[in-house]
Amino acid sequence: MSADGPRRFALVGAGAVVTGPAAPGPVRRPAVEHLGVRAGVAVGVDDGRVALVASDADVRSWAAQPPAAVVVECDGRLVTPGLVDCHTHAVFGRPRLEDHARRARGEDYKAIAAAGGGILSSVADFRGRGEEELIGLTRDRLAWLARLGTTTIEVKSGYGLTLEHELKALRVVRRVAAALPLTLVPTFLGAHEVPDEYRGRGEGGGRRDAYVRLVVEEMIPAVAREGLARFCDVFCEPGVFSLDETEAILRAARGHGLLAKLHADELDAGGGAELGARLGAASADHLGAISPEGIEALAASDTVAVLLPGTLTFLGRTRMAPARALVDAGAIVALATDFNPGSSPTGNLPLILALGVSQARLQPEEAFLAATVNAAAALGLGAERGRIAPGARADLAVWNVRDVRELCYWYGMPLAWRVYAAGRACHGIAGGVSSADSGTSPLSPRQS
Description:
The chain is of the alpha/beta class. Helices cover about 35% and strands about 20% of the residues. It has 15 helices and 18 strands. It has helices spanning about 55-65, 95-105, 110-115, 120-125, 130-145, 165-180, 210-225, 245-255, 270-280, 290-300, 310-315, 325-330, 350-360, 365-370, 375-380; strands at about 10, 15-20, 35-40, 40-45, 50-55, 70-75, 80, 85, 150-155, 185-190, 230-235, 260-265, 285, 305, 335, 395-400, 415-420, 425. Helix 13 (about 350-360) runs antiparallel to helix 14 (about 365-370). Residues about 430-440 have low confidence and may be disordered.
């Protein structure tokens, strides 16, 4: 056995295996039958791929054939695909503790930003940190996510807002991806906010249209030249980036080979969902204030509606994104953590599943599929992730529960028993990527 676990092993004795839909790709109007819950079966893994999904006896027989496989007795536990977190901002420095206190005093998101908090406070902190420190922080944070059952993670830039610091963020993602067995999907989010120096408040003054030109003419070409991102995202929201600015940025990104995503209609209805559908974006994310027209547009498109109930919960919002209406209309709906220092400081995707059920009124099977096959579709990985099938990448989670609905029930509890990414142990076997015993605190680094 290597430090990361055996190359050839079998998960046997499971109470049930959730294989996912029979065919790859996203699911509209998810139902129980799409889960593919199978009793009496086991999973064989060879060299990072699923070798077979068959009866427990057949997999045990396969494991005994030379070269013999390591047999992992699951003792009635649940086996599922590894979870897919399709929206995170995991490359950051310190937490925004004062923002949290201000919200408790009744200040809203925009007031906090105007007082010097919000995204721009994370930008100032990020610019003061070196690449090596950020690599350590990001690696340890993502290892924590793996311990919670997540094996594929989208990671955005967006706290640099200069060419130098946006490239730094994406290089951090690339280097961390090389160090972990997890799949990391990098997204360029230079249009996360307009920085102070282009608002007339910092050195040199400036105008927001000059910042948009910087994103379009310098940042996007540089990101593309280095191959640092798969997607380009824009925070399309009244008061942040307009529909016209968003479209200009995403069309420029497409010209350089980057696929489109956008933060849309998070706090106010601004037409972002409709724009995402019209541009054929991979996803439109947040949607807390989406209009009926936006729901209709997403339902008629292949753009995935990524909902982030943890964000609205943490911000103290009582109105959730209309998950029920989106599913019933036929939109492809995904769930994600939005892991970030300001509005959703959690990487616990099973917790988000629980909020998806209790707050957004999804059914448990809808929530689970939203964090597997549909989340994979939001990353352009619908054919490769979110299912357990022969030949598929062995991204697997074994849970200390027996019913898949329990993943949406025991909210906030650490439920994962074993986690594998490409057949390599992320959690539950000595030598995996977990940093729980390192003595470091990646959630709260030194002040800068």
